[in-house]
Amino acid sequence: MLPREDLLKGVEYRETMAQVIDRAELAIKTWEVVCTDFMSPPEWAEALRVFSRLNDIQLIAFGGYPQAERKRIAIARREVPFEESEVELVALDIAGNFLFDSATHRDFLGALLGTGLVRDKVGDVLVLGERGAQAIVVPELVEFLELNFNQVRSVPVKTRRIPLNELKVREPKKKELTSTEASMRLDAIASAGFGMSRGKMVDMITSGDVRVNWREISSSSHAIKSGDLIAIRGKGRVEVGEVVITKKDRYRVQMTRFV
């Protein structure tokens, strides 16, 4: 069995992690690939980080497309052949005429959950404007949704299964930045990357709105390094690229901001 208490020590999402441990133990026992429900970015990132300590199992997180935020994790013994396709997902097209009654992400998600679904069974929802939306769900719900999901706001919709490669994914807008800073403190790098004052960034960090590699960081002095991903709720994310120390012992930092 897995060292449950060691794996749970100090984790942020203890209940979710306990469920992942249960699924991992089932994968070990059955020699089969076992999937979790959908998780938010901080949850699946923590699971991957915690389980990276173990050598006898392997994990893959996937949400249907490379930039997906909500993902399921597939778990298997190290000896079992394993690839991304083992993460069981289905894409649904939700077609309707929203020209005169536009619907938001909240509307589509609310209508899906209004059928009786729980949030953990639904991945990302991609809004397509007046044409409707697409959603990623667990496979066992497809038939139910095709029969029962028939309206969003006042608009009748038709739901059908589509291949994952037919997802209409909008590429995030990105901006390349270079900044020279006296240190690699989180407040310094994040304020430069997001174009905010240092004081406002400190407030956001202490309020719990800032995550580094999807992990909440409450210390403004947290050290940032090349490859780190800084995310702020409602503001997008910044990926830290190459870091070069200048002749004046300052840090020239390349960043990419995604919005």
Keywords:
3 domains, alpha+beta, Alpha-Beta Plaits, 7 helices, 259 residues, six-stranded antiparallel β-sheet, Structural Genomics Hypothetical 15.5 Kd Protein In mrcA-pckA Intergenic Region, Chain A, Ribosomal Protein S8, Chain: A, domain 1, single chain
Q: Can you describe what's shown?
A:
This protein is of the alpha+beta class and 259 residues long. It has 3 domains: 4-85, Ribosomal Protein S8, Chain: A, domain 1; 90-166, 2-Layer Sandwich (Alpha-Beta Plaits), CATH 3.30.70.330; 174-258, Structural Genomics Hypothetical 15.5 Kd Protein In mrcA-pckA Intergenic Region, Chain A (Roll). The chain is 26% helix and 29% strand. It has 7 helices and 15 strands. The protein has helices at residues 4-8, 14-30, 41-51, 105-113, 142-148, 186-194, 198-206, and strands spanning 34-35, 57-62, 72-77, 90-95, 122-127, 132-137, 151-152, 155-156, 158-162, 174-181, 210-212, 215-216, 229-232, 236-245, 251-258. The chain has a 6-stranded antiparallel beta sheet. β11 and β12 (215-216) form a beta hairpin. α6 (186-194) crosses α7.
